[in-house]
Specification:
Nucleotidyltransferase, domain 5, single chain, five-stranded mixed sheet, four-stranded antiparallel sheet
Length: about 450
């Protein structure tokens, strides 16, 4: 036995379950290999999940409904399992899965279960970065582990124990210790937050919300990995005054899981407008959203500044923007005019008397369309070319659509997000109560992404 005095009390754990969701599926078998200075002890038990084992799971594990019918329930085994794991490093392959199931089972019984967790998938990646795969079958083949009962709890727990022995026999103990220390060091949390938050946070896409002690929202953010993103706020709070201030105010964290990145982006934008968190400045509700509209007057084309209340943005052809405010729209147009030597007077950016040259023309930065040195047609052509990169995309559908992302259906119409539905009945409910008002943030989110969804867009008109 390769006993490691730096990690003297270990528990190699594997579970078999009725499915993959820790909050709703249940455990059907527990296998534990205990390792300490007194030696190695193996223990396992079938568990009655009090629900049916799906046929696919039965085929994978070989554990049938008949086998668990007379087995003890988790409640019957809880005290023994807890005693075997208490005070030990909890090692499992894809440890978040096994730890999550046990944590939820103990939680149902009112037992707080917070072991030091070490994932052997992450440990293998850390120690053998040159390999792409680190699943249990690959480890067994790579390290010539002795496979007994694959996909049975004790058999897989013994494989993890063998892997631990192999690394101690082939790698420097200092390297292993450094990797274990890095992987088991818990991220810091503000003192006002429950430490259980670290275990509860999922690793899925979603939106998270920070609240203060008055239950007012402080911050809303989106994440492709909720756990990693939320904890990142606290890992760097000593280097950022903004993060430090935020961490000192937080009293509660909530989150909403989404089907993917698009759902997280849309939900974030909607929640920030709805809740107006104090630490969010972008995506907040902005009544100043506007665009430049090109209107023809005879041979001349004139630019007029319009806001979202003045027109139905989705049906307009010659719109450029959108911009968060009149000031930003004017600043952007001036930059375009200067870069392309367009006439500030003809664009309406500068007031001059009839027949007088604009200032740029006087300093030879404008070809002089304002005083006839350049034809109106030439200036108009150059203006259209210069503005093309700012042209707004018209809403490409005749009405509302649902964008399929996983099992979710995001309902959007005229660049306005109505909400996310789980089925068509819920989608129609959102459409009937939605308002097709242009939303600058939804436009920016979907502008480049909508076409990529292709056949995943469901028309509701």
């Amino acid at each position: 036995m390769n006993f490691d005095p730096l990690h003297p009390r270990l528990a190699f754990v594997d579970l078999e379950t009725t499915g993959a969701t820790a909050t709703s599926d249940r455990i059907t078998e527990v296998g534990i290999v205990e390792v300490d200075e007194d030696g190695v002890r193996e223990w396992s038990s079938l568990v009655n999940p009090h629900c049916r084992i799906p046929e696919f799971i039965e085929g994978l594990t070989g554990i049938s409904n008949a086998m668990v019918a007379d087995a003890p329930s988790f409640e019957d085994l809880a005290a023994e399992i807890h005693a075997r794991l208490e005070g030990r490093i909890f090692l499992a392959h894809n440890a978040r899965f096994d730890h999550g199931f046990l944590k939820n089972e103990f939680r149902r019984l009112g037992i707080d279960f917070r072991p030091t967790v070490l994932c052997t998938v992450k440990l293998s990646r850390k120690l053998y970065p040159g390999f792409a795969k680190h699943n249990l079958d690959t480890l067994a083949e790579r390290h010539r582990l002795q496979v007994t009962e694959r996909h049975r709890a004790l058999g897989d727990a013994k494989l993890i124990w063998q892997f631990w022995q192999v690394i101690h026999a082939t790698l420097p103990h200092e390297q292993i210790h450094a990797a274990v220390k890095e992987l088991t060091t818990l991220p810091s949390l503000p003192s006002n937050l429950d430490a259980a938050l670290i275990d509860d946070l999922p690793t899925t896409h979603g939106v998270y919300l920070f609240y203060d002690d008055s239950q007012l929202p402080l911050y809303v953010g989106k994440a492709n990995n909720l756990r990693r993103r939320v904890l990142s706020h606290f890992s760097g709070d000593h280097t950022s005054s903004k993060e430090l201030q935020l961490s000192q105010q937080i009293r509660r964290v909530e989150w909403i899981e989404t089907a993917g990145e698009l759902g997280a982006l849309l939900k974030e934008a909607a929640l920030i407008k709805q809740l107006m968190p104090t630490h969010n400045h972008q995506l907040r509700r902005n009544e100043e959203t506007c665009a430049w509209r090109l209107v023809q007057h005879g041979e001349q084309w004139k630019l007029a500044l319009v806001n979202t209340e003045d027109l139905f943005f989705g049906d307009e052809e010659h719109l450029f923007g959108p911009y968060a405010s009149t000031r930003k729209a004017t600043t952007a147009l001036k930059a375009i005019a200067d870069a392309h030597q367009l006439c500030h007077a003809l664009l309406g950016l500068e007031k001059v008397r009839s027949g007088k040259a604009c200032f740029a023309s006087q300093v030879m930065q404008c070809p002089g369309a304002c005083v006839g040195r350049e034809t109106a047609q030439s200036h108009t052509a150059r203006m259209f070319a210069a503005l093309e990169s700012e042209r707004m995309q018209r809403w490409p559908y005749a009405g509302p659509v649902g964008i399929r992302e996983g099992a979710a259906l995001h309902i959007v119409n005229n660049w306005s997000y109505y909400g996310t539905a789980g089925d068509e009945a819920a989608a129609w409910e959102l459409i009937e109560h939605g308002q097709a008002r242009f939303d600058r943030d939804v436009y920016k989110i979907l502008h480049k992404k909508l076409a990529a969804f292709g056949t995943q867009v469901r028309r509701f008109f």
